[in-house]
Amino acid sequence: MSGTSKNQTFNPPGHDTWSPTYSHISSTPISATHKLISFAGQVGGNSTTRHVPGTLGEQVTLALSNVDRCMAAAGATKADIIQIRQYVVNLLPQDPVRAKLYTEWLGDAVKPPSTLIGVQSLAAPELLYEIEVVAVVESGRG
Questions:
Q1: Which portions of the sequence form the region Disordered (predicted)?
Q2: Which domains does the chain have, with CATH numbers?
Q3: What pLDDT digit, counting tens, does each position of 6-27 carry?
Q4: Of 2, 3, 98, 142, which has the most beta carbons under 10 Å away?
Q5: How far apart are CA 130 and CA 87, in angstroms?
Q6: pTM of this prediction?
């Protein structure tokens, strides 16, 4: 991405969206030196094959891998994350599998504000998990 004063949306190479109505990544300049990066629609499915695993744990693992792919494309690291929202179908708040996978993925990075939201359904009936991430990165990255 080149420097610009306007919002840009894009998808990482090999990580197409499931719908033509959105992009995985939005990059918005917020100062001369930094930009706000948003990732949405990171679900537990393979964007190339459209395969969606059947368990919540498998979907969480794949969705977090998709976030990693978006962060790399945008020049972000986990330390740049300023907010996370997780959506879980039929949420069990103390679900040990999701919590363990998420905690391991986040690691020792700064612990950003995070919201865990139980929902009735997501964009497709087989989807059980979605994550949104907001980060601030230096303009020269990504």
A1: 1-22
A2: 8-138 (3.30.1330.40)
A3: 888 887 887 776 677 778 889 9
A4: 98
A5: 5
A6: 0.89
